[in-house]
Write a structure and sequence with these properties.
mainly beta, 1 helix
Length: about 210
């Protein structure tokens, strides 16, 4: 009898759990804005990751150059160790879903003795898909204003980004085929914005919740 009741309750709990899991998540509009005006990094990390990830004293928000005379811009200076291929950029983890209105806006600056070959902005999903947008030969030593909608992103197989994708990460990367080993190359980013939907969650007011 006990075994029968245990099996019955186990089945009930499984059905209830499955029902709750299958319900559509309660989502709200979401906008992330990182303007770096306080000098904070807002969860952004240097990218591509080094083989030995450790504290990097040269990764910070700095006050020159900045976009439209803001106080700070995120900066990633990196000295080339060779004359071959060279990459540097930023990455940040997210947790939201795309909508038809999803767009990325930001300003990028390459402090360099030459133009990068490619500027790549990518969105990775929790399902393992990577949607990228490529800008070839972006102009160095001036701010590049980007306003990219979903239609600008696609996978390597040319699958377009669509609404309902669960975004896990954003990367911004500049690439050079040849560099000078005597030069320190810097990529800067300011006024990063991305929007979509995220799951509704409890937000405390006193003390206030910290959210990234």
């Amino acid at each position: 009898m006990k075994r029968t009741l245990s099996a019955f309750f186990a089945s009930v709990f499984w059905l209830v759990g499955s029902y709750a899991f299958c319900q559509e998540l309660d989502k709200v509009q979401y906008t992330a804005l990182d303007n770096f005006e306080t000098g904070e990094l807002f969860g952004w990390e240097a990218y591509p990751y080094a083989q030995d990830i450790a504290f990097d004293a040269l990764y910070f928000a700095r006050n020159n150059p900045t976009y439209k005379n803001s106080k700070y811009a995120l900066a990633r200076p990196l000295k080339a160790n060779d004359t071959g291929e060279f990459e540097h950029g930023f990455t940040k983890q997210f947790n939201f879903w795309t909508t038809p209105e999803t767009a990325i806006k930001c300003a990028i600056y390459f402090q360099s003795d030459r133009n990068p070959e490619v500027l790549e902005i990518a969105l990775g999903t929790f399902e393992g898909e990577l949607f990228t947008h490529i800008i070839e030969n972006p102009q160095a030593n001036q701010w590049l204003e980007l306003n990219l909608s979903m239609e600008n992103f696609q996978t390597d197989s040319e699958k377009p980004l669509s609404a309902g994708k669960h975004i896990q990460v954003v990367t911004v990367k500049g690439s050079y085929p040849v560099v000078s080993y005597l030069y320190t190359y810097t990529i800067l980013m300011d006024d990063f914005t991305i929007n979509g939907e995220r799951q509704r969650r409890f937000m405390a007011t006193q003390p206030t919740s910290t959210d990234f």
